[in-house]
Predict the structure.
Amino acid sequence: MSPRYAQFVKSLSRPTEAWLLSTVGRFHLLPESYLYGLADVRNVSDFYTSYAFGKIYPKGVWFYFPVAFAIKSSLSFLILLLLAIWAMAARKLTAWREIVFLTIPPAHRKMKTVNLRPTAPRPLYCAKPEWLRSVQSSAGA
């Protein structure tokens, strides 16, 4: 990569962020390309405006991603997430089996619905059930 990661992290405007990212990179806690991208997003947020709740901010705001997560998540997922957090904080759930039961399915569903790659629109015939496609193909349609 050009420039090197260590030099690029030093260009961050906040020294605490630069220290944190360089420490995480030094101990290889996350892949260097991920940290490079994180540092780049942090750099760009100082120069570009952001838009949230009908207001334009001169820099990136801390609440953008939590708000985007809350808006894009389904209501049922958010309710299950809050229920699981409340149950663990109130010590209602002490067995790991119950915690896994409440947290893994919604997390799996969320990760399954998050699509990071753009996909081409599927033709209409792809949306049909398999049995309908087989009947139509055997009928010559």
Residues 73-113 form one domain.
